[in-house]
Amino acid sequence: MEVGPTCHYVMGGVDVDPDTAAATGVPGLFAAGEVAGGMHGSNRLGGNSLSDLLVFGRRAGLHAARYAQETAASGTRPVPDEAQLDLAAAEALRPFSAEAGEPEETAGPAGPPENPYTLHQELQQSMNDLVGIIRKAEEMEEALHRLAGLRVRARRAGVEGHRQFNPGWHLAIDLRNMLLVSECVARAALERTESRGGHTRDDCPEMDRAWRRLNLVCRLSDPSGGLAAPDAGHGQIRLERREMPPIRPDLLNLFEKDELVKYLTDEELTQ
Amino acid sequence: MSAYEAHFRVWRGDQDGGGLKDFHVEVNDGEVVLDIVHRLQATQAPDLAVRWNCKAGKCGSCSAEVNGRPRLLCMTRMSVFERNETITITPLRAFPVVRDLVTDVSFNYTKAREVPSFVPRRGSVRANTGCGRRTWGGRRSSASASSASCARTPAMWCGTSRRTRRRSPGRGS
């Protein structure tokens, strides 16, 4: 039996509206549970993931149903762009042609087909070693460098067999998203120069009150070309700082002021 | 103990037929059969179909037959086999094959849907802490008269006690 510290829960996730569970910027996408971000602040309390599922799972289902009903009734349901669908289908099927040795349609770097399992294992190892439980800037920079290399290689991920229940193919498809999420985690953790909740930095061990009101939001830097961006060496995301809404006064009043000094910014305390 | 190479025979195919294929795979200390199947996937058979989820013996996804007996791949330790033993993995015979070790278990879901879901009794103060708690040990609630059979039913068996209550006559609503 192997025993060791590991990643257990991710506080970050899909940016959602807390009341409707609707994802920001993606009409018709609703998210609840660990996949949604922002619900638990910097560290989830034990037992709260189940309450999260019950409360926000209900909201997500309710509003997804409402959304489907309303857009159907009014004829305003967004229609996916055919060109984007074709692009997505081609991207999904590419691992099969990589195996057959067909020339790539884009000017991607040439090389032998890559084993998706090997790439997955290297990605896991890099993230575990460099963006793990206790982090520091140089290690996360090194991780971003490795991610760039893995992204280039993942473009050549090849699989055998056909489309029916093919785990190698599933992994090849998943790799794209794993690499994207890994980059989001590494970039945001590098940007946040403090330690808070589940985020611990050896080079910034203290909690910094100035960071409390800030969320870091990752977006694809090129949403249109995100599926098959030919220049895979560059980072794929844009990082933004977003200020959180102030804490409601009635909630603030529940705490002793001395207790809040540790957490709140000076402006908040003087208000 | 050290790493060694084990001889596996794994059934590969689909509903139209298939057969056992031979593999030699590395085995390390403390590993279970599912670890070996994953290594097999990663190094020799990337499209080998196997379903798995919890790796902890809870979900049942990785059910297959090991040497002809139904087993959970994640709970079958490699240490129970001799090093020179050939280990044969085949899909469960109880379900139709989809591909390789994956079977169509939709029957389980049909059955699961037939089990009535637990609904807390109307007006039950402690409905969120377990069903029928108030009636345990002969204590009767003033809000609703429970049947005697329910009072004898242990609190944990939600489905049973609910069904009992539903059938029992003279229940207050």
Defining traits:
heterodimer, A: 271 residues, mainly alpha, Methane Monooxygenase Hydroxylase, Chain G, domain 1, 2 domains, two-stranded parallel sheet, two-stranded parallel ribbon, 8 helices, 6 strands, globular, B: 173 residues, alpha+beta, Ubiquitin-like (UB roll), two-stranded antiparallel sheet, 7 strands, 23% strand, disordered C terminus, SDH/FRD_Iron-Sulfur (chain B)
Can you walk me through this structure?
- The complex is a heterodimer of chains A (271) and B (173).
- Chain A is mainly alpha-helical and 271 residues long.
- Chain A has 2 domains: 1-79, no CATH class; 82-242, Up-down Bundle (Methane Monooxygenase Hydroxylase, Chain G, domain 1).
- Chain A has 8 helices and 6 strands; from the N terminus they run E-E-H-H-H-E-H-H-E-E-E-H-H-H.
- Chain A has helices at 48-74, 82-100, 116-130, 137-154, 167-191, 249-252, 257-261, 266-270; strands at 14-15, 36-37, 134-135, 200-201, 214-220, 237-243.
- The longest helix of chain A is centred in the first third of the chain and has 27 residues, at 48-74.
- Chain B is α+β, with helices and mostly antiparallel strands and 173 residues long.
- Chain B has 2 domains: 4-105, Ubiquitin-like (UB roll), CATH 3.10.20.30; 127-167, no CATH class.
- The chains are: A mainly alpha (271), B alpha+beta (173).
- Chains A and B meet through helix 3 and helix 5 of A and helix 1 of B.
CATH-assigned homologous superfamily of the largest domain in chain B? Beta-grasp domain
Task: Assign the CATH superfamily of the largest domain in chain A.
Answer: Fumarate reductase/succinate dehydrogenase flavoprotein-like, C-terminal domain
Question: Architecture of the largest domain in chain A, CATH level 2?
Answer: Up-down Bundle
Shape field of chain A: globular
Run of helices and strands of chain B: EEHEEEEEHHH
Widest sheet: strand ordering of chain B: 2-1-5-3-4
Helical content class of chain B: 10-25%
Helix count of chain B, per DSSP?
Answer: 4
Rg of chain A computed from alpha carbons, rounded to a whole number of angstroms:
21 Å
Chain-averaged pLDDT of chain A: 90
Q: Note the gap between the termini of chain A.
A: 54 Å
Gyration radius over CA of chain B: 24 Å
Q: What is the name of the CATH topology of the largest domain in chain A?
A: Methane Monooxygenase Hydroxylase, Chain G, domain 1
The low-pLDDT segments of chain B are: 130-173
Strands of chain B, total number: 7
How many separate domains of chain B?
Answer: 2
Per the CATH scheme, the topology name of the largest domain in chain B is: Ubiquitin-like (UB roll)
Query: What quaternary form is this?
Result: heterodimer
Indicate the CATH class of the largest domain in chain B. Answer: Alpha Beta
Organism (chain B): Streptomyces violaceusniger
Family (chain B): Belongs to the succinate dehydrogenase/fumarate reductase iron-sulfur protein family.
Domain 2Fe-2S ferredoxin-type (chain B): 6-93
Protein name (chain B): 2Fe-2S ferredoxin-type domain-containing protein
